[in-house]
Design a protein that fits this description.
heterodimer; A: alpha/beta; 5-stranded parallel beta sheet; B: alpha/beta; 5-stranded antiparallel beta sheet; 9 helices; 28% strand
Chain lengths: 452, 274
């Protein structure tokens, strides 16, 4: 995959991966041996007909390919860029044994980008209006998917988003260099053209409750995500310069802090940043801090093999110069007398027996405390669902992690007429899983509204 | 501008006006490239669908808000956010306010009066010309006290003056609510502490989303860290770590205050607004 060279891209926010040219795409897609029982499809959360669209690319039938792709995946430009394909379709490709798995994700992206370049947006035929109204709470991947499916089935759909821009994590979480916001706008615009009503600055649970909305809507889908930040609860965490990953990324991505002072939301000029965590969010924070001129470290308590982040992003981070401190656990932040963080004290770890997640458990190495200088730290250890919907909607069942309990196949919750899907149900996960949950919920909502 | 540097704006925001309760706030954006700024709601009209906010012109966003013309649209007014101030029948309630707090405490004072409390209102300012909405407060309060630094109205000094006043009371005050700048709330809380008056303050940390997503508004209250936007903005003034709050509020002082004080001719000439 052609990429901006590391030395250049570590100083700008333009997209890192440049995308395939058509000839490369055709050549790569032609390598697919068109297995009669494709293992790639089995490992795709939404069961895209992968051999199907690969064949179309190989035959230069790009228009047919994108149609096949979009049958199951309504956000291919996004998923092609952010799906952890190395754990999904590409992992089970039969050619992977010889390290030659088809670059399925890049080809998906190729088709999506090709379609966008054609500039011939073909709006699908929308079924006759049913007169029934659905409210989608949350304008992230799950919500956008539900809206896209239901509007085409003839329902009146309104998305109610708390922030001032649609997209959820696609907008506030994932940086410009990984997912250009123009692509997110394009998808949102597409929904608008189909007739979805987009309402921003609307906090369900505060501006109106779900029960109040049920006076007006026939069904509700809750896709409010996992936006509650986790802190480590260690000393010094409230020092100036210590951020949750959500704050750091929201400042940068949603509020365009990296363009301060052209945009008003301020950011600091940090020189030594420590990002705690090993997932995609941690990589995003680290690569953003790096682009703003800081010496950036990832502090992770396990080793490289256990990093949960998408492999391509780990490699990109390494190439760009992010320093990885593996087997390291932060103990506390030390500040100066003005309340600014100046140092972080950590403990060395070693790997012990596997824990419940199957990964080897980090075990402290006694007496190995050490300190190093930082002027900022970003806590990127995870998020859980925001409790607002649960606390303002009686009758919904809450799970142990503050999630909304919903049926795995239909997305139905304990309350009649209320469905839920995506991170708010599963905890922080991926865009494609949210999308898959959205599709299933839309199907279930459709079944319910046609039978009642 | 209703008194020097303090501005009052009424916004058409029917969804917010319908639900807002005393003590809640909204988040505004004055422009597409602007910040998200939290401001308390000082009054509202549920029928017409308007809310009224009060703010000091002290930074780029409040400066833009201060220059808005009637009839202009602003891109974001989201709310009502935060928890409403608890209002019940307590007995005698002391409402202490200064600056923009005079505006934000008004609906709280009004609600407390409606619940049958004896209402003592204390309005604090540097000088008498900075006091406002006096008639509104006279109308609902059983007693109104002014405190001015220069003594041009009422007691001379700062909120600490209340100490002597509280000593003279036969019946103790059952609850105190303080709205205003950090200094006022901190000093006010210290003043009521020896009298063991339950004191509620409305904290003003930096915020971005206002819905509990980012944690920048986190404050130490007692032994716990709370998010002012969803756990507050009201907290017990005797439990708040004021030093930490004051420190955290200064985080962007260099970035926000310093540029605001320069003329920025060049950036005004080239900055695109589209």
């Amino acid at each position: 995959m052609p990429k901006q060279p590391p030395r250049i891209r570590s100083h700008n926010f333009y997209e890192v991966a440049l995308g395939y040219q058509a000839d490369i795409a055709v050549e790569e897609a032609a390598r697919c041996i068109q297995c009669p029982k494709p293992k790639c499809v089995d490992n795709c959360p939404v069961e895209i007909d992968i051999p199907g669209f690969l064949k179309c690319i190989a035959e230069r039938r790009f228009d047919k390919g994108i149609r096949i792709l979009k049958e199951k995946n309504c956000l291919p430009a996004i998923c092609g860029r952010v799906c952890p394909q190395e754990e999904q379709c590409e992992m089970t490709c039969v050619l992977s044994k010889k390290g030659g798995q088809i670059a399925i994700g890049r080809l998906e992206r190729f088709l999506a980008d090709w379609e966008a370049q054609q500039n011939q947006l073909k709006l699908p035929k929308v079924k006759k209006k049913t007169g029934k109204k659905v409210a989608v709470i949350g304008g992230g991947p799950a919500g956008l998917t539900v809206a896209g499916d239901l509007i085409q089935l003839g329902y009146d759909v309104t998305i109610l988003e708390a922030l001032h821009k649609m997209g959820g994590v696609l907008t506030y979480g994932i940086p410009e260099f990984r997912l250009p916001k123009a692509i997110v706008s394009r998808e949102v615009d597409y929904l608008k053209k189909l007739g979805v009503e987009l309402v921003t600055d609307f906090v369900v649970g505060k501006t109106r409750t779900i029960d109040s909305l049920l006076d007006e809507f026939d069904a509700i889908f809750v896709g409010t995500g996992a936006g509650l930040p986790w802190f480590m609860d260690i000393p010094g965490e409230n020092l100036n310069g210590v951020y949750s990953a959500n704050e750091y990324l929201t400042r940068m991505n949603l509020m365009k802090g990296y363009l301060f002072p052209e945009f008003d939301t301020p950011i600091k000029n940090h020189k030594k940043v420590a990002v705690i965590g090993g997932g995609n969010v941690a990589m995003d924070c680290a690569r953003t801090a790096l682009r703003l001129g800081a010496e950036t470290r990832i502090i992770y308590r396990r080793s490289r093999d256990e990093l949960p982040a998408r492999l391509e992003e780990i490699e990109n981070a390494e190439e760009e110069g992010v320093i990885f401190e593996f087997l390291t656990l932060p103990l506390k932040y030390i500040g100066d007398r003005n309340g600014w963080v100046r140092e972080i004290e950590c403990l060395r770890m070693e790997l012990g027996e596997p824990d419940s997640s199957g990964r080897r458990r980090p075990v402290a190495v006694e007496g190995s405390e050490f300190r190093f200088e930082v002027d900022a730290a970003v806590c990127a250890i995870g998020n859980s669902p925001n409790p607002l919907i649960l606390s303002t909607t009686p009758g919904l069942e809450a799970g142990k992690k503050g999630n909304i309990v919903a049926d795995e196949t239909t997305g139905r919750t304990a309350r009649d007429k209320i469905w839920a899907g995506g991170d708010v149900v599963t905890g922080a996960a991926t865009v494609i899983l949210a999308m898959g949950a959205g599709r299933q919920a839309a199907k279930s909502i459709h079944e319910y509204l046609t039978s009642s | 501008m209703i008194v020097p540097n303090l501005h009052q704006i009424t916004l058409e925001a029917p969804a917010v006006a319908k639900e807002v309760l005393p003590g809640q706030f909204v988040i505004l954006r004055a422009d597409e490239d602007g910040e998200r700024t939290p401001l308390s709601v000082c009054d509202w009209d549920r029928e017409i669908g308007t809310i009224t906010i009060m703010f000091l012109n002290i930074g780029s966003t409040t400066n833009r808000l201060a220059h808005l013309q009637e009839g202009t649209y602003i891109p974001t007014v989201v709310g009502p956010l935060g928890n409403a101030t608890e209002t019940d029948h307590y007995g005698t309630v002391l409402c202490v306010a200064g600056c923009y707090g005079i505006g934000s405490i008004f609906p709280i004072a009004r609600a407390l009066k409606e619940k049958g409390n004896r209402l003592i209102t204390v309005l604090e300012a540097r000088s008498s010309y900075l006091l406002y909405w006096l008639e509104r407060f006279e109308h609902i309060s059983d007693e109104v006290i002014h405190i001015t630094r220069d003594g041009t109205s009422g007691l001379r000094g700062h909120v600490g003056c209340l100490q002597d006043y509280l000593k003279t009371l036969h019946k103790p005050v059952d609850r105190a609510i303080i709205n205003g700048c950090t200094f006022l709330m901190k000093t006010g809380s210290e003043t009521t502490r020896p009298f063991q008056i339950k004191t509620i303050v409305s904290l003003n940390p930096i915020m971005i989303d206002g819905t509990g997503m980012c944690g920048v508004c986190r404050v130490r209250v007692g032994s716990a860290t709370k998010f002012a936007c969803v756990d507050g903005p009201d907290f017990d003034g005797h439990d708040v770590d004021w030093e930490e709050l004051l420190q955290r509020r200064k985080t962007y002082m260099n970035e926000e205050v310093v540029p605001f004080r320069t003329s920025r001719c060049e950036s005004h000439a080239y900055k695109s607004r589209g």
